[in-house]
Amino acid sequence: MEIHPQQGSAMLLAASWADGLAVIERGATLGVGDAIDFLPFSALMA
Q: Is the separation of the CB atoms in 36 and 1 below 8 Å?
């Protein structure tokens, strides 16, 4: 998981390649290797 380098409308194209959503609390600080919650798009379609 990594933050897209261009924060703007171009992110929509990158989102179309995604497999799901990372669930991260607002203001959270994450380090390399930290566990996060992940919501796969397949779970949203079930």
A: yes
Helices (H), the chain: 11-15, 41-45
pLDDT tens, per residue, the chain with 46 residues: 666 677 777 677 777 788 988 899 989 999 999 999 999 999 988 7
Verdict on whether the full-model pTM lies above 0.85: no
Which tokens in the block code for residue 10? Answer: 């171009």
What is the C-alpha to C-alpha distance for residues 40 and 21, in angstroms, rounded to an integer?
Answer: 6
Residues 6 or more apart in contact with residue 4 via CB below 8 angstroms = 10, 11, 14
